[in-house]
Design a protein that fits this description.
- The structure is a homodimer.
- By secondary structure, chain A is α/β, with parallel strands linked by helices.
- The first copy, chain A, has three domains: 5-132 and 301-332, 3-Layer(aba) Sandwich (Rossmann fold), CATH 3.40.50; 136-297, 2-Layer Sandwich (Dihydrodipicolinate Reductase, domain 2); 344-426, 2-Layer Sandwich (Alpha-Beta Plaits), CATH 3.30.70.
- Chain A is built from 14 helices and 18 strands.
- In chain A, strands 7, 8, 9, 10, 11, 12, 13, 14, 15, 16, 17 and 18 form a twelve-stranded mixed β-sheet that branches.
- The model of chain A has no long low-confidence stretch (mean pLDDT 93).
Chain lengths: 428, 428
């Protein structure tokens, strides 16, 4: 029987308390399967949602105590990038293995942290930083290691997926559903981090980095959110056999990497189209295995904590074996060129807000054709009001041209076009 | 840089040739990520579909050569249970680590093999034995290790899923689709192993064993196949909002284990209902993570081989670290009590073949009510022919009562009931 492994926890928020619960409630099954136990040795937290669980444990006076000799693994569960970065780098210098659920930290300071970890021979577990309870990090870095990954298509933000699913089901407006989501706790009081795609962008930077062994950070991700999506768009999409989803996409074409987060029209028989509510789903397309898809709760105390504990167990096994080995740290992160999205081609859905008058479509069609954009289908919804939506689905066109055309239409036809043109790509 | 790892391959069929292709085509990326290479040292095979790939490698004269000192891991890719068992046990005695894709071997001799492996300190990789390219074995034994698993619901046979999906889409008969599947290579010339549920039963025995740390073998699995499913059943199901799928179910209730393979009515918004064609999907419900679902190709040369190579890499990392550690071998397999399915309750779909005459429904209803089975909905399809299908959906009833009722109806009413009553459970 190996010796027990001691962990120190920095941060007792939603995830931290979930970790405490799992390590306590399932201590027996973990010990039975592992052959040794996992002890919570020290905890440091400014606030605690679960002090009651921890009566037997020592609260530290400051985080330095988590770096004591008898602690093997420290958990960074405070979030944010300032204190978290300082703490993690300091812990690595003290030869502590790290488990973190902090996507912002990894998407912005990951390579600094990983290189320092490699120098100090410690391991960074970050399964919980992407898609909560779905073990996508280990799947990519270990189970698919013999594959060249071609692309990732993912729903990694449960809040946006919940909102879009609810709009589809209830036919209600974005605002109504968002407010409902905030009430029900599916969205933050300040929802911008989720609905503007920032959360998804951080997660996609991490997934792209490990999938393509590439230096990818948050700043490298093209981001569009779902703020402007209206039920009209979702309804038009479903009439054409599509669902609207906020997707994260990472793909390598001719040695250039695309990492983008944006709403997409996806065919309703695509497995991702059928993932609704707060669920996350990641489809990985690789050369040998083909398409595999991983679906589960992307957030929540226990699912996320379960991934944290899986990392603890993974590192604990390494410690017992006497050699810490991480697929990720042996992999080299290369500098890569990123695709210029203006050169990409796609089918596009465009919603213009137009004055309901004669000749509007003609004017718009002229500008589109000037930029070699041909219309596949068009619908104008007369609502009796003076400004009505004009919905256009295009054939394949170059993104630069679409953007130029929209700008020109909005500039030269202000008499018939109101602002707030909405552009959504159709997933190939 | 660690030393390269040498593998010996027994069997160059579909999977074996896939392994050779992956280890050759992706040698660079594997070496880059691992920090060392994987060499194919020796191969023994009676027949080879890929001799051309192997010109540089040594063909062994007999499998004993695969047990030479310079081979670290042997791959058992011949299938079957006689020679495969003999070879694997002998290889373990020679302290060789084993990777096998052989579900029949593991579902029938797994515990003999695992205990011998534990005695000899070697590891058994068997990711490829269940669901081809889907890394479900590692997910359960490692990523969900901190969880108590409550149940598994899975589509693990691509042939059956293809046939049922095609019947749903084309409205054609089971026979027509099966013949098409055989022509297109989605089904074997002798399809009984797949369509009678045997293949699924072997896979479910393996999944149940690792999910519940329980001694489960093929003989412990209740099995029904899809031979008797007619388009009528699929059509009736879809009218009520269900899809018909061959499911493997493993669940623990009050310390009794149920492992069953059978066709089920499942609600069409269940994620498994949306997995069509040759794809496999496994839903795992666990106490902390909740429901997670894993979808991918369940068969095929490269997806299956990719899982074999993932096992090789996993074991190779252990070898390099100097200590081989397997979640499975440290876990203890307990003897468990199995559920008596006659005591289970469920909603049931029953298709009687009845003579189209007055009083038929009355007679059937009487017998059902005698056994406390109440009818939720019933449809009789008059086809002008003398024998017509009578479709019944029941409220919750005890399985023993359903079976007794059907037997009594078939026995006492031979004048109105023709044989071939079909019973399908409704998934809760």
């Amino acid at each position: 029987m190996d010796k027990d492994i001691n962990v120190g926890i920095f941060g007792l928020g939603t995830v931290g308390c979930g970790v405490v619960k799992i390590l306590q409630d399932n201590a027996d099954v973990i010990k039975k399967r592992l052959g040794f136990g996992i002890n919570i040795k020290k905890v440091f937290s400014h606030t605690s949602k679960c002090k009651n669980l921890l009566s037997n444990y020592t609260y530290a006076k400051n985080y330095k105590e988590l770096l004591d000799d008898d602690i093997d693994i420290v958990l960074e569960l405070i979030g944010g990038t300032d204190v978290a970065r300082k703490f993690v780098l300091e812990a690595i210098e003290h030869k502590k293995h790290i488990v973190s659920a902090n996507k912002a930290l990894l998407a912005n300071h990951g390579f600094e942290i990983f290189s320092k970890a490699t120098q100090n021979g410690v391991k960074i577990g970050f399964e919980a930083s992407v898609a909560g309870g779905v073990p996508i990090i280990k799947v990519i870095t270990r189970d698919l290691m013999a594959n060249n990954i071609k692309s990732i298509k993912a729903i990694v933000n449960g809040t946006c997926n919940y909102i879009l699913s609810q709009m589809f089901e209830t036919h209600e407006s974005f605002e109504n559903i968002l407010n409902k989501a905030i009430k029900e706790g599916y969205a933050e009081r300040d929802p911008s981090f989720d609905i503007d795609g920032i959360d998804s962008a951080q997660k996609m930077a991490i997934l792209a980095a490990i999938s393509f062994n590439a230096k990818v950070e948050e700043k490298d991700v093209y981001v569009e959110g779902i703020r402007d999506i209206d039920f009209i768009d979702i309804d038009f999409a479903s009439q054409l056999g599509y669902r609207v989803k906020l997707l994260g996409i990472a793909s390598m074409n001719e040695n250039k990497l695309l990492v983008r987060v944006a709403p997409y029209f996806i065919e309703s028989d695509n497995v991702l189209a059928k993932v609704d509510g707060v669920y996350n789903a990641i489809s990985v397309i690789s050369d040998m295995t083909g398409q595999t898809t991983y679906v589960g709760k992307g957030a929540g105390s226990l699912p996320t904590a379960s991934s944290v504990v899986a990392d603890i167990i993974d590192i604990a096994n390494d410690i017992q074996s006497g050699q810490v080995k991480s697929a990720l740290q042996t992999g080299i992160f290369d500098n890569v060129e990123f695709v210029d999205v203006d050169n990409l081609e796609s089918h596009y859905y465009i919603r213009f807000s137009v004055v309901d008058s004669v000749g509007v479509l003609g004017n718009i069609a002229l500008v589109l054709s000037k930029y070699n954009i041909s219309i596949k289908s068009v619908v104008q919804i007369g609502k009796g009001s003076d400004v009505v939506p004009l919905l256009v689905l295009t054939h394949k066109a170059k993104e630069a041209n679409i953007k130029k055309a929209i700008k020109e239409i909005e500039k030269d036809h202000q008499n018939i076009i109101k602002n707030g043109t909405v552009l959504i790509r159709v997933l190939d």
